[in-house]
Write a structure and sequence with these properties.
It contains four helices and 39 strands.
């Protein structure tokens, strides 16, 4: 690891770097703060909602860039920026950076070096989605399964930790997500189901990096759930956990999404394949799984359930109820009781033909001949495609409107699972084990931004896009929805109607995560620009053929007349 030269005492003075610790209580209150952004998802609930209203429908057209900062990376900018005391902290796959929030001037930059073989075993985009902040440290994961803690003021390394055996990068594990810190425990998941691993979620001590616990997402032989795997297929069963979860302090539960089984070809792993494609409720101190809900048993289509479960209290049958919501890649929007995981609602929020619905009593999908044909090895045309109705990108929820704001994908595929492969840890188990081609209804509409009712899945409005948006959304109390477009536009939409009110062209495609914050009484909006990720690389979308690469960080504010 290399650290660049310190940028000078003057920048530190201007930026307002503080020695104050970000305690567990600070993080629990982060969802209600406006000057700092301390937790992935703008608060433990993952709602990505801001109470700020200075930027509103009437003046958003006056939004202009304040500064831009080059991150000198060509792999893609999916990161979530953190803000503390006038400093923005942001990550790429091989760098962690602190910049002055008002000027964009670099304070420090740390380059993370990898062994040469590291990038060979990263399935679906050489990216990093962000860091966590805790007691004066910036803590992030690296793709070779290390965690590193840096001093937030200087970038100096405080500790580093390696995920213990038997996790090895050669076996397909890679950490690409942002950690979630709960009561001093750093919680992190892994990517790599496409390389035949056995998935897991881990906890580390935030102060020292000591490994505390590991929860495997695939049961070992003889454990509950192992009977849902044929033969020894559980040993390479997948179940990645690569997207950051959420936390409810009242229930002391962390909610984490679990990904697809391996291989993609379902004929090699007959059974329900627990606990893949599930939502977990976990005790943060111990890693104990309190409950789970499985969305797609024996998934043939790579319908990861890794999408961040959003926590909210909404009216259900006339009574307030704490729930978790997940817009699942499969095309169904799930609403579960936060305490026990009981199914409250499950409805399609895009085009779905592999199931007719979800049984309210059993929670199981009511599969069609499309799904059954895929299991038998027949060629089928299925909606959605492997990309899902949404992918990893995060939705937002407004307590004011009661709506979810979801970037969706409108693409299907033809699919066939031929004779199943034999697997070993580290052996590719993804696209090469099935045959598939892309199907579109309208080549000019491959995606929508939708305002969706959580309990019905129905859209209040749908704004179409030529390519799907892989940017996350953010919603504010002034009823503005912010999102990025794959072709580079950063936009603000009316949360009530879906009308695009403002658009600014950035240098590259946006697949990042917008945030908003205030400083000295002024509201700002920050987002990364920089095309990357598996859709951009492999979907063959003609709208993206001539798009420049290169990651940069942009901050916007209202133009003062």
């Amino acid at each position: 690891m290399k650290r660049s030269a310190f940028a000078g005492a003057m920048i530190l003075a201007l930026s307002g770097v503080s020695s104050l610790a970000q305690t567990s209580q600070d993080l629990k209150a982060a969802g209600g703060t406006t000057g700092d952004v301390l937790v992935y998802g703008m608060g433990y609930s993952g709602q990505r909602f801001s109470p700020l209203t200075q930027i509103n429908k009437e003046n958003v057209s006056r939004l202009v860039p304040v500064w831009a900062y080059s991150l000198a990376d060509l792999q893609g900018g999916e990161g979530f920026p953190l803000v503390k005391d006038g400093v923005i902290y942001v990550t790429t796959h091989n760098a962690t950076v602190a910049v002055d929030a008002l000027s964009g001037k670099q304070i420090w930059r740390v380059i993370h070096e990898y062994p040469p073989e590291t990038l060979r075993v990263v399935c679906c985009g050489i990216v990093n989605r962000g860091a966590a902040i805790y007691e004066g440290m910036i803590i992030r994961a690296l793709m070779d399964d290390r965690l590193v803690a840096l001093d937030s003021a200087t970038g100096k390394e405080i500790w580093t930790a390696k995920s213990p055996d038997p996790v090895t990068h050669a076996n397909g594990y890679a950490m690409t997500g942002a950690p979630l810190i709960v009561d001093g425990v750093v919680i992190i998941g892994v990517a790599g189901a496409e390389y035949s691993h056995r998935g897991l979620v881990e906890g580390y001590d935030a102060k020292t990096g000591k490994h505390l616990w590991r929860l495997y997402t695939i049961p070992a032989e003889g454990e509950p759930g192992s009977e849902t795997w044929e033969g020894d297929s559980h040993q390479t069963g997948g179940g990645s956990s690569w997207v950051t979860g959420t936390y409810d302090a009242e229930l002391d539960l962390v909610y984490w999404g679990i990904g697809n089984p391996a291989p993609w070809n379902p004929r090699a792993r007959k059974g329900d394949n627990l606990f893949t494609n599930s939502i977990f409720a976990i005790r943060p101190k111990t890693g104990e799984r309190v409950w789970y809900y499985q969305a797609t048993p024996q998934d043939p289509f790579d319908y990861d359930a890794v999408q961040t479960p959003v926590i909210a209290t909404i009216n259900v049958d006339g009574n307030p109820r704490k729930i978790v919501m997940q817009a699942n890649r499969s095309g169904f929007l799930y609403v579960l009781d936060a305490k026990d995981g009981r199914l409250i609602a499950a409805n399609a929020y895009g085009k779905v033909n592999w199931a007719d619905g979800v049984d309210r009593e059993t929670g199981r999908p009511l599969t069609t001949d499309v799904f059954k044909g895929a299991l038998e090895g027949r060629t089928v045309t299925v909606w959605p495609s492997v990309s899902g109705v949404t992918n990893w990108q995060h939705m937002s929820f407004s307590p004011q409107t009661g709506m979810l704001y979801i970037n969706t994908i409108h693409v299907g595929m033809t699919y066939q699972a031929p004779e199943p492969p034999k697997l070993a840890p580290g052996k590719p188990s993804g696209a090469g084990t099935v045959k598939r081609t892309t199907v579109t209804e309208d080549p000019n509409v491959r995606g929508f931004l939708k305002a969706v009712d959580p309990l019905t899945g129905k859209s209040k409005w749908e704004t179409p896009y030529r390519s799907p948006n892989f940017s996350s959304t953010m919603v504010t109390a002034s009823n503005l929805v912010f999102t990025g477009v794959m072709t580079g536009e950063f936009q603000a939409l009316d949360a009530d109607t879906g009308k695009i009110l403002w658009s600014f062209q950035t240098p590259s495609g946006i697949v990042g995560q917008p945030i908003t914050w205030e400083r000295n009484g002024k509201q700002y909006v920050t987002v990364m620009s920089g095309i990357g990720g598996v859709y951009a690389q492999r979907a063959g979308d003609p709208n993206l053929e001539n798009l420049p690469t290169g990651v940069s960080l942009w901050t916007f504010a209202l133009f003062d007349k």
